[in-house]
Amino acid sequence: MDIVQRKSAEMKLQWNNVLVLLFLFTAAKCGKPGDDASVAYVDNETSTKALMPNEWHSKSGKCDWQGGSGSSLISRVMTSDCMPECPYHKPLGFESNAVTADQISCSNQEQYTGWYSSWTANKARLNGQGFGCAWLSKFQDNGQWIQIDLKEIKVISGIMTQGRCDVDEWMTKYSVQYKTDDSLNWVYYKDQTGNNRVFYGNSDRSSTVQNFLRPPIVARYIRLLPLGWHVRIAVRMELLECMSKCA
């Protein structure tokens, strides 16, 4: 990558950081659904579904649009006087197969032959059942990852994980990386202290653990990097896309 391309990539990353800040700042203009207790989820606690809060009204008046996600959601931050937080989380489509096999990849993918060919990254789908119901990492170390290409820049507001359906194997903690363009370097999702955030995962094979992203990630590519596991790195998952809606 030459100097001009590098500068362009750095400017693009900075611009996306600005968009995230705008997204969060503008959220203050809309009302909230009360405190976290009024929303039917708790970070890092098990649940079988991503539960949504009831509709709520803007303090600054009614919006003339509903729905919206991804880059269209970001663009509306620039033009709308009313921009809520992320009270609506839409499953991206791992479970429904709307996320296709070519969008999901993993480390050492070329080595998934024989028995492992039934446990590829494409099998990392929430609530998958039967033989080959999860992604099983062929190697058990901190150099492994599973990656999702969203095909376009989207606003991702949460991650849901499960363990392997038929054996007691699961991922106990992980970190997250993202980037907006294939030519850019991976960026770690940080906590409030500026350190790489550690997301706590599963403690059994079947429960679903939800981790909500505050702030959400604005990116095209997302990676989960296992940091801990029970017996073996085993993942079924879903990403949640941020949906905005003012009533």
UniProtKB/TrEMBL annotation:
- SMART domains membership: FA58C
InterPro entries recorded: FA58C, Galactose-bd-like_sf
Q: Which UniProt keywords apply?
A: Disulfide bond, Signal
Q: Which GO terms describe its biological process?
A: retina layer formation
GO CC annotations on file:
external side of plasma membrane; extracellular space
Q: Does the keyword GTP-binding apply?
A: no
Cleavable signal peptide: 1-30
Supply the CDD domains for this chain.
Answer: FA58C
**Source superkingdom:** Eukaryota
- Residues of the F5/8 type C domain: 86-242
Family matches, as PANTHER family:
MULTICOPPER OXIDASE-RELATED, RETINOSCHISIN
Q: Know the name of this protein?
A: Retinoschisin isoform X1
Name its species.
Answer: Xenopus tropicalis (Western clawed frog)
